[in-house]
Amino acid sequence: MNCQMQPKEIVKVPEPTLRRLPWYLSNVKLLKKKGERYVSSTQISKEINIDASQIAKDLSYVNISGRTRVGYEVDTLITVLENFLGFTNIHKAFLFGVGSLGGALLRDSGLTQFGLEIVAGFDINPALVGTTINGIPIYHTDEFEKKMQEYDVNIGVLTVPIEIAQRITDVMISGGIKAVWNFTPFRIRVPENIVVQNTSLYAHLAVMFNRLNFNNIK
Amino acid sequence: MNCQMQPKEIVKVPEPTLRRLPWYLSNVKLLKKKGERYVSSTQISKEINIDASQIAKDLSYVNISGRTRVGYEVDTLITVLENFLGFTNIHKAFLFGVGSLGGALLRDSGLTQFGLEIVAGFDINPALVGTTINGIPIYHTDEFEKKMQEYDVNIGVLTVPIEIAQRITDVMISGGIKAVWNFTPFRIRVPENIVVQNTSLYAHLAVMFNRLNFNNIK
């Protein structure tokens, strides 16, 4: 055995760690394609410009230990990271608001590769209700609670206009949704036990435009 | 006049501020729809659960000042924030890698509303080159430098497989791209004067899955 896996207590992994782990994963995947069998945190560090000690600390949350002077076994590290990050389990989700961004996400089959399967969309637009996008059915929002009985879903993807972002969030949660992936630029409020991830493409655009502008002027 | 606008020196606005400003914007837009004419940082604070002093500090980067006891004029605040965030100017972009996510982003016309217009896609897939998606032409990656002469573009959207993420980034930059919006889970390296925004949907998924899991077990 090149590594030991021990079950660990459930600890709340810091969010910055969880955001860095996929970087290590993609880097290690690349090393595998190049034919490498072992990788050390120093090696990863050189590739992606993060302190080796930080990488080792981040990887300490994952149930894997490396061998001195040899490092982590590449295949095992990939498997363990993918499991740890939840990419190997399929998590089913409903999407709310089949507008431009919502429709685009329904068409992005790539999410399944990382463990998210959007199994239905909800909207009130009569031109959309009853149709499918990329094979995914679109139901009227009124049917949501009924569909919660049919599908084993606990994630809701929020891509509605800001005016109804809070209302639809409340509907989702009262229907049993446990995690909201919020793509709107609106800061939704949820009870303490509900998970929220904000992915505001617009906030990222704002940062990018500002930095571009700053570089142009300075 | 309900507010004064003075030109300010160019200061590098902190990224957390830039990420919060779109929240204030969407909140103020909502207040406008409800018929409000003035808004204070205390009011915004109550709605979105961020300290009023933080909001006032964030807004101090923007060229707007409120009136004592009355607050900011809603219309002016919206206009000033939209300008400040760069949402009112159109920034043209090329997209690299018309796979599942890349194709989805080409179809998301909503980005234009926030100042980003993807004017062309690049790929090497012969089934895609020469076609259009949502009216946007797709060219062979080899044509990129030539197309840089034709279009006034300085932003590149990166949606390629991780194996070529760094190589395509290098190609983009040597062709004149000044900002890379990186959707891959790969940590790309760029010269100091190049802007990078990372939007890793997969990292967000990892955080969400972990939190869901944690809530289920605890």
Verbal overview:
- The first copy, chain A, has 218 residues and is of the alpha/beta class.
- The first copy, chain A, has 2 domains: 15-84, Orthogonal Bundle (Arc Repressor Mutant, subunit A), CATH 1.10.10.10; 91-204, Rossmann fold (3-Layer(aba) Sandwich), CATH 3.40.50.720.
- In chain A, 43% of the residues lie in helices and 17% in strands.
- The first copy, chain A, is built from 9 helices and 9 strands.
- The first copy, chain A, has helices spanning 15-33, 41-48, 52-59, 74-85, 100-107, 110-113, 144-150, 165-174, 201-217, and strands at 38-39, 72-73, 91-96, 116-123, 132-133, 136-140, 155-158, 179-182, 195-198.
- In chain A, the strands form 2 sheets. In chain A, strands 5-6-4-3-7-8-9 form a 7-stranded mixed sheet. In chain A, strands 1-2 form a two-stranded antiparallel ribbon.
- In chain A, helix 2 (41-48) crosses helix 3.
- Mean pLDDT of chain A is 90; it is low at 1-8.
- At the A-B interface, helix 1, helix 5 and helix 9 of A face helix 1, helix 5 and helix 9 of B.
Secondary structure blueprint with pairings:
The structure is a homodimer.
Chain A: H1 15-33, E1 38-39, H2 41-48, H3 52-59, E2 72-73, H4 74-85, E3 91-96, H5 100-107, H6 110-113, E4 116-123, E5 132-133, E6 136-140, H7 144-150, E7 155-158, H8 165-174, E8 179-182, E9 195-198, H9 201-217
Parallel strand pairs in A: 3-4, 3-7, 4-6, 7-8, 8-9
Antiparallel strand pairs in A: 1-2, 5-6
Helix pairs in contact in A: 1-4, 2-3
